[in-house]
């Protein structure tokens, strides 16, 4: 399936072609790289930057790997007939994608060829909810760890068969059905520093699972609180953001979860257009200038302007609440990007998702335009507060990824087919883009395609070794690299 990538040509009109070629051939102005440190490496996860959807178990959305080298870029589309929100890369260099088929909505794991992105092997999983099974990670043995629709914690490895072909196999399976009630589904998972797998469900159950012993322990969060995003782990504990509050959870020796602290936030009058639930759209992000996990941050759902909230990881003390995304639509379904003292937030307000979770509820207001927006907030060196460094209308259509190696933010832009408007259309063009984090200026772009086939749907890209960017779309994966 999809073994023949399609090389994309730039638009054919001479003026557009000439301008695009000049831009593609221009070397981007590489920014300084003061962004450090990344969260500490989790010994039970794969390589930093590519082990989880958000790069690492702290969900920094940053990577120590550089993006494509300066010069002309190529963009190839690998058609998988699936939306592919998760593309991870193990220590062996093989990308593993967790996708959902367009027809049937079946979660499917693909092993991709590092040479061209084509699918080497695939493995369908039991179907669950729309968000269930979206989040996964690679463990220290390059196995994909995910929970399927039958509430089984799976470790999926890729192996050579006797004939030399690749195969994906379920190497281990631990039932969670006794811990996860019927009608509920696991939304987020992440390993801790003891080798246990933390999980959180849509209906607000948090737990630990140790598939070495078969031990599963759970904690019910307050009634009415849902978990619509993934979770993050650091040596100090596990961060979970519900539709009402942010938590740091720890575990007893036997794995029983405990609440270390809870901080409520302003969830606004309802789900904003361009979001998938009523509450924060953030997977909590650990970051900080000393340990890499000094702070944890989320974006609230306040109306009309959302705030970036930063807490001290140790005790949940608020550091700041800063209004963000003021230049465009103020709402975000994306996890903040954060390294050192710098935090970046991208707007998804008004983004036209083709499908919403069954329990999403009505939008308030009922509709909105996708204006875009990107903000940078800096935590003061003494921890006394935060300052908005810049705020612009970058129209990011993917979760941005910051490279500490090249000092650039990597994302995809969705531009209106009618210039000068904020209208969205099924004909909109998409551009891979690099942004200078010092100023928010776009320094390099590459046209990837137009229309539904190329919609990146606010999914996150992953930078692989060799400067290759894998970006999920509604129908497969884009592979972007230097020529």
Write the layout of secondary structure elements.
Blueprint: E1 6-7, H1 14-25, E2 62-63, E3 73-79, E4 82-89, E5 95-101, E6 107-112, E7 119-124, E8 137-138, E9 144-147, E10 152-160, E11 166-175, E12 186-191, E13 197-201, E14 205-210, E15 215-220, E16 232-234, E17 237-241, E18 245-251, E19 257-264, E20 285-287, E21 295-299, E22 307-312, E23 318-323, E24 337-339, E25 342-346, E26 374-379, E27 386-392, E28 398-399, E29 401-403, E30 408-414, E31 429-435, E32 442-450, E33 459-464, E34 468-472, E35 476-482
Parallel strand pairs: 2-29, 28-33
Antiparallel strand pairs: 1-3, 3-35, 4-5, 5-6, 6-7, 8-9, 9-10, 10-11, 12-13, 13-14, 14-15, 16-17, 17-18, 18-19, 20-21, 21-22, 22-23, 24-25, 25-26, 26-27, 29-30, 30-31, 31-32, 33-34, 34-35
Q: What is the helical fraction, as a range of percent?
A: under 10%
The largest sheet has its strands arranged as 1-3-35-34-33-28
Estimate the global geometry from the Cα principal axes: globular
CATH superfamily membership: YVTN repeat-like/Quinoprotein amine dehydrogenase
**Which value, in Å, is the CA radius of gyration?**
21 Å
Structural class: mainly beta
Output mean pLDDT. Answer: 92
Second-tier CATH architecture: 7 Propeller
How far apart are the first and last residues' alpha carbons, in Å?
Answer: 25 Å
How many strands? Answer: 35
Summarize the main sheet.
6 strands, mixed
Q: Helical segment tally? A: 1
| Count of the domains | 1
> In percent terms, what proportion of residues is strand?
35-45%
CATH topology type:
Methylamine Dehydrogenase, Chain H
Q: CATH first level: which class?
A: Mainly Beta
